[in-house]
Amino acid sequence: MIAVFIETRDRKPKKSSLEALSEAKRIARLMGLETAAVLAGAGLESLAPELGPYGLGRIFCLESPALADYSAQGYGRAICDLARETKPAAMFFAATAMGKDLAPRVAAGLGAGLASDCTKLAVKDGTLEFTRPIYAGKAILSFTLSSTPKIATLRPNVFPLAAPAAGAAAEVVKKAVDIPEGFIKGRVGEILKEESAEIDVTEADVVISGGRGMKGPENFVLLRELAALIPRSAVGASRSAVDSGWIGHQHQVGQTGKTVSPNLYLAFGISGAIQHLAGMSSSKYIVAVNKDPDAPIFKAVDYGIVGDLFEVIPHLKDELKKIAAE
Amino acid sequence: MNILVFVKRVPDTESRIRIQHQTMSIIEDGLNFVASPYDEFAVEEALRLKEARGGTVRVVCVGREDALPVLRKCLAMGADEAVLVKDDAPETYDGLRTARIIARTVEQKFAGTDLLLFGKQSVGADLSQVPAMTAELLGLPQANVVTKLEIGEGAGTALREVEGGIEKVVFSLPAVVSAQKGLNEPRYETLKGIMAAKKKEIPVVKLEDLGLGPEELAPKVVITGLDVPPERQAGKILRGDPAGTARELVALLHGEAKVI
User: Fold this and answer.
1) What is the ipTM of this complex?
2) Which CATH number fits domain B2-217: 3.40.50.620, 2.40.50.140, 3.40.50.720, 3.40.50.10840?
3) Which of A94, B26, B73, B76 could form a disulfide bond with B197, CB atoms 3.0-4.6 angstroms apart?
């Protein structure tokens, strides 16, 4: 069995969890294994119909009032108990904030190896092989894990989402989880949303980034205006823009920021320092607009415009509006 | 308050990574090694907590002797003590092995620690595994990817970054906290600090003295390949008037790449 932990938001499975589930199905088929989903929390059964079309063997619902709020300790214990009982060959998580918080606890609890933030999985001679970028994408590491189970987190936006298919409904297996009083010593007390509920750069289909060439914080509004014209897009930034205080560090793309792999990465006024290129080089298409024809970023692009971003952006907006009107 | 900070020696972020294919390892010659940038936020936070509440800041590195300059830098920033847990193994990219070494070191050498601070990940292996694994092995609560930390009597709160929002984590001490950029602005070493750090002795803990079995120290990660990413093909560069180039770019993105 390959068990996939399903993270939910607003009582719906997260897209990145469904991507992990889709990849688990593909791998399970190659290895002749069953795929199962794992949910944790309270009152989970209403989620089962969302997962049914993925053709799962079982959906495990780990239920306890103690799991109503997320805690790495509580969720970790519940998942470790399930793993000891059902002995999965592998367990997948999405490499989201929660997945990165939780998977290492499960791995350590089980004494299992963990492959973090994978961008490719393969079956070679019957063994699961993991591939992941290291040094923020300056190198690519492939490896196997000698433990059972093998645990992996899968990078969001990389693995294709399988189309749900009609089929037999999965068996819903409810597990009451026993969490002793006082076991959980830390938990999420409150979720403080940001003022603007913007989509995160790691989850966006299109990332629109600005660098030193933006000249000041006030000009990032130009990128936000572009983002408003492109569905599922987010505004990113280079380290120098963040370190200058022009935009919050949660927007930073690069080796001391976030590693992104959107369908389209648009870089405005970014010269292309190696630590920035590392964080976005796995994007499917890369575009740069820069005044300097010798800027290193042009070596990384699919398309580039040598020109003044302040002159180009208004025309880009016009062209995008035309396409939207078509 | 007794604080432990864990630091790792990594190539700086300007490094170009080259591969030694026979050994499936990176070529270290010519690289400039530094304390992992996220670890500096952890050291800074420890120093600020000490300044506000008193106590001791100890910095621990698991690694080879060539990591000593990284520990000296932390001493120069103001840490009270530094300890090297000498591990001569090459980079294993295996978080569990490191977490086991750290957890055992804490149990044997640093009982009574209130707070274990880490960077959210090393810049290099990029695992984001060791803080949470250490917390699990020691039965401690955790707050990872933290941008704000408040410590009170026997408990703390931390703000942590999640997609599209911020979570407030409440926890009792002792606890594991990992630092994200934004937590603070790390201080520079002072000349006085650098001079004092030079004179400080850095005790070395031998791996074999921790009593970990060969099974516990064997990496679970079995490397099968290491390479640099394939070069991207040369792109199409547009020049000329802003209106024309913008029109052509959007046409390419819409018609050829089909990403808009």
Assistant:
1) 0.95
2) 3.40.50.620
3) B76
